[in-house]
Design brief:
mainly beta, Porin, 10-stranded antiparallel sheet, 55% strand
Length: 182
């Protein structure tokens, strides 16, 4: 009787345990190329990374809706220059990125959209700017976590300099890291 009860409890709990509602992503990003209206397109043909090596550490908390197709994401990132410009300041700033991910069932691919809110600017301005981040990526599932690789494009939406248009500035980024689901 006890064995039957334990077996029934395991069978009933298994679908609940298999459903992962909360996710945590830890990763890093690198700016591959960027364009500003005043400075033109910058990229390095030898390393495919821009001259100043803008890098970032990312931490994302996700809530997956029932069905595991759509997630609501809250990401915080700290950005810095790997090779600081002549001004000498290696810190770029902090970015908060609320967004969503759409992940079709069974396939390891996903699409992502976010609105990065830049709290600090490399120019020292404290006025926030808002961008649109569009991306796509894929997951490599392992036993305890997934490895993700994602390509993103950022376009300005507003804030900061009012003369910035949607395509006057842009950045292409490559992200990678670990994706945990609880």
């Amino acid at each position: 009787m006890k064995l039957a009860f334990a077996l029934a409890a395991v069978l009933l709990a298994a679908p609940l345990a298999a459903r992962a509602d909360i996710g945590l992503r830890v990763g890093a990003d690198a700016t591959i190329a960027y364009h500003t209206g005043a400075h033109g397109t910058t990229s390095s043909s030898t390393t495919f990374i821009t001259d100043t090596w803008p890098l970032g550490g990312d931490l994302m908390l996700s809530y997956w809706t029932p069905g595991q197709i759509l997630s609501i994401d809250l990401e915080i990132a700290e950005q810095f220059y790997g090779s600081p410009p002549s001004s000498g300041n290696s810190r770029i700033g902090t970015v908060f990125r609320p967004g969503v991910r759409l992940s079709p069932p069974i396939l390891p691919f996903y699409a992502r959209a976010a609105v990065p809110i830049n709290f600090e600017q490399p120019t020292g301005h404290s006025r926030e700017t808002y961008d649109l981040r569009l991306g796509a990526g894929f997951n490599i599932p392992l036993v305890l976590f997934k490895i993700y690789i994602e390509a993103d494009a950022d376009f300005p939406l507003g804030g900061g300099d009012s003369s910035i248009g949607a395509f006057s500035n842009w950045a292409l980024l490559l992200n990678a890291g670990l994706d945990f689901r609880f």
